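Marked as duplicate of an earlier ticket. Keeping the data here for the record.
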Amino acid sequence: LQPYQSPERIAALNAKNITSFAMELIPRISRAQSMDVLSSQAAIAGYKAAIMGADLAPRFFPMLTTAAGTIRPSKVIIIGVGVAGLQAIATARRLGAVVEAYDVRSATKEQVQSLGAKFIELGITAEGTGGYARELTAEEKQQQQEALAKHIATADVLITTAAVPGRPSPKIIPESTVDGMKSGAVIIDLAAEGGGNCTLTQPGKTIVHNGVTIHAPLNVPSQVPVHASEMYAKNLLNFLTPMLKDGAYAPDFSDEVIAGALLTHEGKIMNAAIRQQVEGA
């Protein structure tokens, strides 16, 4: 339902006294993993991001030994190690690239290393709740940008995935960092739906700035429609099945998962954040 992007739709559902659920609002807890739409679709986006990077890059990803000499592997740097970032790491590694990754959540270091990538340590951590990082202070953002710029300057492909539903994507890559990248480098901004992680990003467009290609795709899972639909359907089935008792629709609105996803019910907008956005109160 995209509640954060479509307040008019939510208001209309509420006005017609419709009970609605937003799959995006399902709590990110162990019991709800099989229902987690954000994770299933993010996995597709991460996979496609690596493929897009390989397609747009003017270089091979793997090391090749040929009669014309040895070709060094490309370096791929991934910013944001959530589901999309992890899948991007795994896919870029399968394609033969040398991969480095960064996340403000230090707990992701082990996950990065388990996939054969190097974790970039900047000394800045921002552990948050619900699987997301907390917002950095202005000073921390400045430190992060300056430290990351040195690493990004060496990248052939940069994939950014830092996004939080309902909020603008954090600006991690300023124009000065892009200016420091090598000619022919590629940025795949998976956070384009929220405005992008790069200040130069134009959502839905591909531009070239000082020899650096900045690709900002929208609705990436739609590029893998068969498996995206299969995974989404399975998420829906796993979400709806507990609500069916002896073939009848009987949801337990006190259940943590059902209550968390409940958007409108009996003429009320149940999610506090969405209610404030729609009603301003």
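See parent ticket for discussion. DSSP finds nine helices and 14 strands in the chain.
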